[in-house]
Write a structure and sequence with these properties.
5 strands; about 30% helix; 2 helices; about 35% strand; 3-stranded mixed sheet
């Protein structure tokens, strides 16, 4: 199974309540078992329960549309700046997978 990370990114980023997506990675655990991990910035989330519900809806969409049953989503309430292993700060502005 081949899943295009760019198309997956567009689908997740375009989902209701999603402000941005970064650090999206897609790989295969086996020949028929795709996996995904991503940081997802949510819009206007007031409670942890609301965030978990949105995350569940995203995981459901990924499983139904792409057959990705193993998805790890890091849910965030704002963009983060990461310091990479090289000690350089990276601004993860919306605009594509990083």
């Amino acid at each position: 199974m081949s899943i295009c990370p760019d198309i997956t990114w567009v689908r997740v980023a375009g989902s209701p309540g999603v402000a941005a997506v970064h650090h999206l990675h897609v790989w295969e655990l086996g020949s028929d078992m795709p996996a995904l991990s991503a940081h997802v910035v949510l819009d206007d989330v007031r409670t942890l329960h609301d965030a978990q519900t949105r995350g569940d809806h995203l995981k459901e969409m990924l499983s139904e549309r792409y057959g990705i049953w193993h998805a790890t989503l890091e849910l965030e309430c704002h963009e983060c700046n990461d310091i990479d292993h090289d000690g350089i700060e990276h601004d993860n502005a919306p605009g594509g997978p990083t």
